[in-house]
Amino acid sequence: MRRVQLRLLVGLVLLAAPIFAEESGAAPEQSGTMIWQVLNFFILAAALGWLTKKYVAPLLASRSIEIREGLEAGKKAKADADARAAEVQRKIANLGSEIAALRTGAKEERDREAERLRRETQAEIARIHLQAEHEIESAGKQARLEVRRVGARIAIELAENQVRARMSPEVQAALLQGFIADLSGSDLVKPSAFRAATNVD
Fold it and tell me: Cystine design at 17: which of 35, 103, 127, 195 (Cβ 3.0–4.6 Å)?
């Protein structure tokens, strides 16, 4: 289609060249030169058009595609930025309630920890109290046993002293005779005599 239009244009120029030459009254040599000039102009214009179509048009088309893609990327980036801004605004709007929830959670956690420490402290106090009672009871038992041992030792010492105080040579001789009589099975010492001998005030 463009070739047909180009041919028509070239034909019209060729036909119009002699008319312009006759009107101007120029010499035939000048009209021939003008035809060649016009023909050269159209050849140059056609060459420029062909070069533009072959090299510039794809360059412009690729540049147009790049611009279109850049615009699409810009729209997408703007949509992403708007979405992020909306998310940030939503978070900022919910920030007060989130802070209140965090404070409530922290207070509950603190109360739970305080209650746990109170229970552990009471349990430790009860354990120490029970242990102290056991130690006191054990120390009391030990003290009573020690008092009994000391009392028994003192009683034994008193009895020993009393026996020694009552031991005279006659009593010792009577005891010795009684012991020998028991060994031999003979009745050398009468029990009444032994009781009389040992009953010394």
Answer: 35
